[in-house]
Specification:
- The chain contains three helices and five strands, in the order H-H-E-E-E-E-E-H.
- By secondary structure, it is an alpha+beta fold.
- It has two domains: 42 residues; 59 residues, SH3 type barrels (Roll), CATH 2.30.30.
- The protein has a five-stranded antiparallel sheet, covered by helices on one side.
- Strand 3 and strand 4 form a beta hairpin.
- The longest helix has 42 residues.
Length: 120
């Protein structure tokens, strides 16, 4: 009637003390490997980007051309402790939190002069 129970007990792992540590380690090895891969490909690059952004925000100065996180491009007119004044058009300025500056405009002056000559 309960012939499966006897089979289940017969298939149970032995209670040897020496192999228990290795068995536990072998069970957690895939989990540890997944965490290491996650760290290398996700967490560490995000930390590097966040550090670079903090440094860029700390080094903002008057005259820098920047992009905001909403996509507005402008020139910094005034830098305060927690915000900047950004000129987005002639005689149009907005106050913006420093952390909302997404990146510096990376347009080379040579390329700008070249495009100005082509427009003329």
């Amino acid at each position: 009637m309960f012939s499966l129970v006897d089979t289940a007990y017969a298939m149970a792992p032995g209670a040897s003390g020496a192999s228990d540590g290795a068995a536990v380690l072998s069970q957690f090895f895939p989990l540890i490997l997944i965490f290491i891969i996650f760290w290398v490909f996700v967490i560490r690059p995000q930390q590097k980007r966040a550090k670079a952004h903090r440094e860029m925000v700390a080094n903002l100065k008057k005259g820098d051309e920047v992009f905001t996180d909403s996509g507005i491009r402008g020139t910094i007119m005034k830098v305060a402790e927690d915000h900047v004044t950004l000129e987005i058009a002639p005689k149009v300025a907005v106050h913006l939190l420093r952390g909302r500056v997404a990146e510096m405009a990376k347009e080379a002056k040579g390329q700008a002069a070249k495009s100005d000559k082509e427009d003329a």
